[in-house]
Amino acid sequence: MTPGITILAIESSCDDTSAAVVSDGYVLSNLIANQAVHKAYGGVVPELASRAHQANIVPVVDQALAAAGKRAGEVSAVAFTRGPGLLGSLLVGTSFAKGFALARNLPLIEVNHLQAHVMSHFVMEHGRQNRIPGFPFLCLLVSGGHTQLIIMRDHLSMELIGNTIDDAAGEAFDKCAKVMGLPYPGGPVIDRLASEGNPDAFRFARPRIQGLDFSFSGLKTSFLYFLRDRVAEDPEFINKNLNDLAASLQRTIIEILIGKLVKASKETGVTEIGIAGGVSANAGLRQAASKEAQKRAWNLFLPELRYTTDNAAMIGITAYYKYLRSEFTDQSVVPVARIETEKS
User: Fold this and answer.
1) Among 167, 136, 141, 128, which Cα is nearest to 152's?
2) Cβ-based burial of 35 (10 A; exposed 0-12, middle 13-18, buried ≥19)
3) Could you tell me which residues are beta bridge partners of residue 329?
4) Which of 95, 103, 132, 283 is spaced 20 to 30 A from 217 at the CA atom?
């Protein structure tokens, strides 16, 4: 391991402003400023998000450096999320990183946000037992905007073998929660309600998608029509059955996800398995994955909850391995809202 590499990492792809310091592959600090303003609108408002990033980024970076016990002059490189994400939000992080690097003549490292979520499994911290996957590593990436199956052959080789053909699992959680009148973000609320409900109470349509791809639009439609018909019969149906609705919906989504993960493991022969992204914080999904791991002798990796959401530590650890390979970018780099990864 090459000594003396200190990376300042910036993550600003959506509504969380995060900065982290990674030194020689270990996370020294990871600060996140959340934006509660979006709850009133039932979703992230891009313009409000970018304005909040502008207000948050300088204090968050200052706190991250202070918490790591590092000065700006000790930074070896600056890493940032180039995409995918909200363009206005990405612009704030990219611009700050470019300015910080230019002022100090430091190399810049651009990071794919999705790859970084998978790389959260390789985060190491001092003072704890660090359990790191071996290669090849199969990861189910589940978030509000993406649902993918990815094989990592090494730290920087990302092979996409399954993708959603329409909506992501996290989007299904949030939109179904909105139909039930639950606050944003709905996924964590459904997870909490599901723990008190009966997952066998109701049945919803499941997609029949060949191969390793996913689909959740049909499930959302099925859920919407089911509620429409039941509420027409009893206006209090949702309130009376809220826990059972949450549990039944969550079970359906989890079974779809785990079913494809099992299929992918069987087809590839890979038993080093992980789950990443915001939905990987879902207690039901973590329990289901752990149960499958025991049954199938998987070596399962579940990220710590603080590394499931958008955070700069995962950007920094990805950048560390890119630094080792001298994979730098220049000042002409611009953020991109979408990064298309071709399926293998």
Assistant:
1) 136
2) buried
3) 108
4) 283
